[in-house]
Amino acid sequence: MAVALRLSCLCFLQLLIVIVLFINSSADNSIEEAEQFQSLSNSTIVNRLSGNDELRHEHAVDDPEAIASMVDTSIRNSTERRKLGYFSCTTGNPIDDCWRCDRHWQRNRRRLADCSIGFGRNAIGGRDGRFYVVTDSGDDDPVNPRPGTLRHAVIQDEPLWIVFKRDMHITLKQELIMNSFKTIDARGVNVHIANGACITIQFVTNIIIHGLHIHDCKPTGNAMVRSSPSHYGWRTMADGDAISIFGSSHIWVDHNSLSNCADGLIDAIMGSTAITISNNYFTHHNEVILLGHSDSYVRDKVMQVTIAFNHFGEGLIQRMPRCRHGYFHVVNNDYTHWEMYAIGGSAAPTINSQGNRYLAPVNPFAKEVTKRVEPWEGSWKQWNWRSVGDLLLNGAYFTASGRAAPGSYARASSLAAKSSSMVGMITSNAGALS
């Protein structure tokens, strides 16, 4: 009987050991799963995108020429109103005329959300949410931001129209990762985001960024950063873009002053679409705007971007923009400086240049507006690049290719030659407004 008792005790101890080992193994697995979840935001990004193709296709329009025609109509209406003297405040810039003619715009800030044109025209930002007033310029803790800071505002799950109590200089420790349905509205104050990390728009929708000075952005990362009230995760090194748009849609970037960052001033990649970049002032930078991840990333064929009323100013070298795969409407911009080229592309993008003013540099070898990066000689001749009503100065020339403009576009572009002569006036207030 004693032997049987010892055997029973031994069996019990073995069973106990097995249970303990099982619990420890489960705990280790839970820790591994938690670590994998925290790093998911930027360590398996390409895999995440493969499951979101249908969503981004929904945000791309079937007929981009129709949106280009809508932009032309908006410009036509604004310039005609100015010519006839209907409103003394009108400039011919349909975005500005939409809200700046209202003397009480500060009481009606959300009206700005109805003023965009082009592919980003449906970006409503935080129009349907409450106002959030930023009172604190600090950014001490990217994981647990203080209420009143810009980081605390942009990570909230609800729609917010974010304004600033006073002038501010904000130095971000890590990327400012925005949540969907947010407007950053710096009208009426002088707000600089500089000398640190800058803005990341990743896997979100409906963002408006208006009126900021963004400059001297630096690479940051290898740190934990919060992206919503319920989630934070490990971020690998960021490039140092002023504004990085990644797998996102319905984005409007308007009236910002951008310069001198470690990488690009605006990058839109990985299937981002429905974007308008307007009324910005770009200066002192090498690679200004990148639109498209790589030649092999064919999901960027859904990318559709309007680039309107911007001033590409002193100290710029190239990429205004540099495009891949998608459809890009470049309309009524003022190009007063470039050292290498203005508009570049690869992987057969469609570039629709209308009513821009291109002032070539003195360098006789940099007069061409366009630059094509091609896999083999002559393949670019099939790419659809066209120039309608552009003003080419100081020996500037645009090398067109592909098919001619369709009839519907040609009719909508009938004002282009006149509007190119008005570019100086239309873009005179580009950048963050004083």
Automatic annotation (TrEMBL):
The EC number of this protein is 4.2.2.2
Q: Which reaction does it catalyse?
A: Eliminative cleavage of (1->4)-alpha-D-galacturonan to give oligosaccharides with 4-deoxy-alpha-D-galact-4-enuronosyl groups at their non-reducing ends
Pathway(s) where this gene product acts: Glycan metabolism; pectin degradation; 2-dehydro-3-deoxy-D-gluconate from pectin: step 2/5
Note on how the cofactor is bound: Binds 1 Ca(2+) ion. Required for its activity.
Keywords in alphabetical order: Calcium, Lyase, Metal-binding, Signal
User: Does the keyword section mention Magnesium?
Assistant: no
Q: What is this protein called?
A: Pectate lyase
The species is Solanum stoloniferum
